[in-house]
Design a protein that fits this description.
It is a single chain. By secondary structure, the chain is an alpha/beta fold. The chain has one domain: Alpha-Beta Barrel (TIM Barrel). Helices cover about 50% and strands about 15% of the residues. The chain contains 14 helices and eleven strands. Strands 1-2-3-4-7-8-9-11 form an eight-stranded parallel beta barrel, surrounded by seven helices. A hairpin with a 4-residue loop joins strand 5 and strand 6. The longest helix has 20 residues.
Amino acid sequence: MSELEFAVWDGFPVYEMATSPVAADVYQKHLGEAQLAEELGYQGYYTIEHQNSHVGQITSPSLYLCAVAQHTTNMRIGAMIYQLPFYQPMRLAQEIAMLDHLSHGRVEFGTGIGVHEHEFIRWGLPFDQRRQMSEEALEIIVQGWTQETVTYKGKFWNYDEALPFPKPYQQPHPPIWVGAHSPASLDFAAKKNYHVSQNIDIDTVIAEKFEYFRQAWRKEQHPGPMPRTFVMRPVHVAETDVLAREEAEKVMLSSRDVIRDGIEKTRIGFKGTEPTPTNLELGRVFQGMNTSFDFWLDNGLALIGSPETVLKQLEAQHELLGYDIFCANHRFGPMAAEMSTKSMKLFAQEVMPALAQ
């Protein structure tokens, strides 16, 4: 088994913002959890961006991660992912470069195209062109990091001798990740020599996709080491298997449909993705998540149990997928803070050291 890096996923459950008098209290609590994660030995801290969404509440990742950087000293930090079509790319290039300096070179840059049509409709963005927008934006961002001036004429953005500043702390730039589910995204990552992250597919499908990516990468004959892979999963560790299930089951089964209610009641409503084979499979997975706790466990979508049980689950999963970073989401749905904190401590103190041995 290759050396494995452990990270914490912080998706900012909608429930917290909905039940807190002010957002400041929620941010402060999560910054404290980031500090605790670093003290416990987690090597990374990641969140995700969504706009107009039920999924998460970090609508300005760079701003929040700047605060995380000031509250930590060693952990890698990043958003997995930034929704590239929602950005003026040169501004984002400069934001990430500044964050890289303020964190002294700890940024991992996660990129993606977005998946829910209603998020785009609400900002007047062309959902059907999001892939082209994302690829063009990323090309501009890399130029902004690596060139003194940028002159660019594209379909979506144009620059005439732009003067991006500063250049990133990490040279030539922070590691670039692609949130990849479709063959097109995997091919793009392989061609560009970018790292790949995953958080939704079942284990056997991720194994197939990671192998597809590795083969596609080899065909490109890039110099240097193979890019890394990243997987996020909900994790709940308790003293016994029975207690872990008791604490996690109801929370997990209520964590998906209920949080869509507010979006569905708006005038525009909730509009998902086009019916591609990739998205149809993801829809099947979401349906299974909504109806069966055992579906989560049987497909590797969550690791739940005592430290001994979770260790076995993690070893088997890592053997199958071969990922380089395992990102544990200890706080999902309306999970009580004391339970998620207990889980994070048990995972760090009993699972992570056992795997290292």
